[in-house]
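Section 3.1: Structural characterization of target chains.
Under the original work plan, the team committed to producing a structural model for every single-chain target entering the pipeline before any wet-lab resources were allocated. The record below documents one such target. The sequence was received from the expression subgroup and is listed exactly as submitted; it comprises 87 residues.
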Amino acid sequence: MYAKISKKGQVTIPKPIREKLKIEKEGGVLFLVEEGDVKLKGIPGSRADILAGSLKKYAREYVPLNEIRGKIKEKVADEAAGEGLSN
């Protein structure tokens, strides 16, 4: 089945496909890339709602990736320096 891609890279999933995947208005789609092929897995609305915000309690605040990388480099350097002193 063919679907056109919009200028924003969006695709409307045809109704027969949505019905087969049991995707409702509030549902979602999981894209699986396997050996160069893309497969869609439907996530029904009720399950998508259950998952929404499920990791929120673990989130603290936004930390830029370069800051995280800097902290990792510091920790690795500290551990390497400590190993050098013990030899």
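The chain has a mean pLDDT of 80.
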